[in-house]
Design brief:
Elements (H helix, E strand, L loop, with lengths): L2 H25 L1 H6 L7 H6 L1 H22 L6 H27 L4 H25 L11
Helix pairs in contact: 1-4, 1-6, 5-6
Keywords: Membrane, Transmembrane, Transmembrane helix
Length: about 140
């Protein structure tokens, strides 16, 4: 793992954190407010910030690692990023939402919105990785 891997992993981790804030902190905020009895209060949630940061770092670096191992230089990067993002949504975002629905008494509509927005986030992260191309040797225009 070279310097480029660590830079790409950091960028993707930060992008994942921003997308998570957009999805959960803004777009789904009314849903969470209606379900306040199911989640931690704001003060307790703020104490969990190190875990949130660790989760997004793991996500960013794991996605970078998997994408860089499977990236094929002879294929269109945009298509690879899109396919990778969909695969990550089906591996991570959608199952996590289904498990949350199975474990907690959450409304189905909320879970559907979480899964859809989480999947869109994964696709965006996949496209970001395709643009960054972690295995590219120099910062040149993508193929």
């Amino acid at each position: 793992m070279d310097k480029r891997f660590w830079i790409c992993g950091t960028v993707v981790s930060f992008a994942a954190l921003l997308l998570s804030f957009l999805v959960h902190g803004l777009l789904l905020a009314p849903d969470y407010a209606a379900l306040v009895h199911e989640y931690r209060d704001a003060r307790d949630g703020a104490r969990q910030l190190p875990w949130v940061l660790l989760a997004h770092a793991l996500l960013g670096f794991a996605m970078t690692w998997i994408f860089s191992v499977g990236f094929a230089h002879d294929r269109r990067p945009l298509r690879q990023g899109l396919r990778f993002g969909v695969a990550m949504a089906l591996v991570a975002a959608v199952p996590a939402c289904l498990l949350a629905y199975a474990a907690q008494p959450l409304p189905a509509g909320f879970i559907v919105r979480q899964a859809a927005l989480g999947s869109a986030s994964m696709v965006l992260l996949g496209l970001l990785l395709a643009w960054l191309q972690p295995r590219r040797r120099a910062f040149t225009a993508p193929h």
